[in-house]
Amino acid sequence: MAESSVETNATPTTRPQARRLKGHKAIATCCIASRDRPGLIASSSEDGCVCWFDMRCKDLLFTMDAAQNPISSLCFKPGNEDIIYISSENEVKVFDVHMLTSWKPLESFNYNKEEINQITCNSKSSFLAAADDGGDIKIIDIRQKCLYKTLRAAHESICSSVQFLPWRPWEVITGGLDSKLIMWDFSKGRPFKVMDLGKSDPESSSSGAQCFNPAFVHAIAVPEVDMLEKLDKICVVARGDGVVDVINIESEFTAAKSKARKTGQTKSNGKSSSQNPETQDQNQRTRLRLDYSCGGHTAAVSCVAFSMFGEKGRYVISGGNDKAVKAWNLSRFSEVDQTTRDNTDILHLNISLSRKVNWLCSTPSDSDNLVVCDTSKVVKVYTVA
């Protein structure tokens, strides 16, 4: 029986078998792909192990016994992918993959009080961010091996995702189960822009088939430095109500500065603005909403990632609890008129799975370029053309 079915907007195509990567003894939780060595993949599982695969080989390369508890997140050190960071419970461990015999961590950071949901490094390999269940984000100076800053008191619930903004070296963006997307200046340790995705969107389309879960932020993705020439400075958001939001971050940043200036002017002259600041903010926002009406997800979206194959960043890949993985063509993002609702041609590919999606990533390869961790022990690999 076929592992999946693949369809495009037009007509159903072939039903290829997924390549199956076996090695985990428990549910696979996360996966990352090497940029420097195409085809090298690391995936983690609930039993605390990390499995390493090379797409040029048939079998598992090796397994790391990295933690006693489930691993929630993985990331490479940019510029030196022999170093890998692993989060489990409230701890971040650092490993050198060349140390095949002992698997003792080079370093261990225990700054988070609650369970960590995601870790990520900035592009210069100077800071690591760890977002946790308490809503805190720890910024760790990985060169000095110490805590640099704690970001707190903005998320009202679990902080599920964090990403550094590569075009703004002192800023991160976070998302949480309070439905908030927050932009931070981590050098100062405070937020400068809060977007509440749980507020009703007057421009959103209504569909009886769209799920009505809260707009929890389950995952976010931002383009890497070498994608910025082709893409706007955007953030893609995986939401609990089945929506994939594409948000122009620079537009939000400009709106935040404008709102701050107008607030200051109002205080100085003692007059109130005739227009609601939130309305002004909404008018300035550039956002693309990918929902069920344009072929999107019908249940919570659990993960999003930019494509690393072909023209990098051309596609955004999303996976969800509706047992589907979708590839969205964002090459025309700036040309799309959201008010027309004519976004159906943005959906490039739909892959139907047999299980819910935990995580996914893409590789720089022409084939075997989409890696999916679902709620099974087996990691699946597909080809997106």
Automatic annotation (TrEMBL):
Ranges annotated as biased composition (Polar residues): 265-285
Keyword terms of this UniProt record: Repeat, WD repeat
Coiled coil regions in record: none
WD repeat spans: 294-338
Pfam families given in the database record: WD40
Repeat listed as a keyword: yes
Region span, Disordered: 258-285
Highest taxon of the lineage: Eukaryota
Alphabetized InterPro entries for the sequence: WD40/YVTN_repeat-like_dom_sf, WD40_repeat_CS, WD40_repeat_dom_sf, WD40_rpt
Protein name: WD repeat-containing protein 53
